[in-house]
Write a structure and sequence with these properties.
196 residues; mainly alpha; Hypothetical protein af1432; globular
Length: 196
């Protein structure tokens, strides 16, 4: 399936702001893939599809999770804002015909992450957070500066760690539940970045 077809389909089902975010994420994913020697076209495609289920209402997402996805754990169901990630991976496969496990994994993990993420999955996660079309400039510049000052996967891990620190602070400030996976990823990244 070509990217023009995917863009047109997404434009029809996403809000204007979400579509702008999608295009920004795809472009940012391509740039990060180039920087880290990964497949740029694959990264762009993943960025395009990462929010492909974002157009659905919470109850519809939950219904699909309950009926079609048997591997979604309770932790992923603590915050309705993350429901679109597992459903997005499901849609990418079912509707868009994607069979590449790395693409599907990156879509699935782009909200709460996971321990043991591949470099590809990490750059998709970051692209979603720092794309230039809709994300906060100050936050985006801070993460980009970390990536520019630190080489290779060390820089990616430091940037991800910063993202998870901000996510956890935000959840605490809003008195929302913190998924165990989020804490596990934070702890894993802390171990990786302590000595950089």
């Amino acid at each position: 399936m070509n990217t023009d077809f995917i863009k047109n389909k997404l434009k029809d089902c996403l809000s204007e702001e979400r579509f702008l975010h999608t295009l920004g994420t795809a472009q940012c994913a391509r740039e990060l893939a180039k920087k880290y020697g990964l497949d740029e076209d694959k990264a762009y495609l993943t960025g395009l599809l990462h929010d492909c289920a974002k157009c659905l209402e919470t109850q519809e997402l939950l219904k699909i999770i309950k009926e079609e996805l048997k591997d979604v754990d309770e932790g992923e169901l603590q915050n309705y804002k993350t429901f679109h990630a597992p459903v997005g991976a499901y849609f990418a496969k079912k509707i868009y015909g994607i069979n590449d496990n790395e693409i599907l994994g990156a879509i699935r993990k782009h909200t709460i992450g996971a321990t043991g993420m591949s470099l590809f999955e990490k750059i998709i996660f970051l692209a979603d957070k720092i794309e230039p079309n809709t994300r906060d400039k100050k936050y985006r510049d801070e993460i980009r500066e970390i990536l520019n000052k630190n080489e290779g996967e060390d820089g990616v891990n430091l940037a991800l760690f910063r993202c998870f620190c901000e996510t956890i602070k935000s959840l605490v400030n809003r008195e929302l539940k913190i998924c165990k996976t989020t804490i596990d990823v934070y702890n894993e990244l802390l171990d990786k970045v302590k000595n950089i």
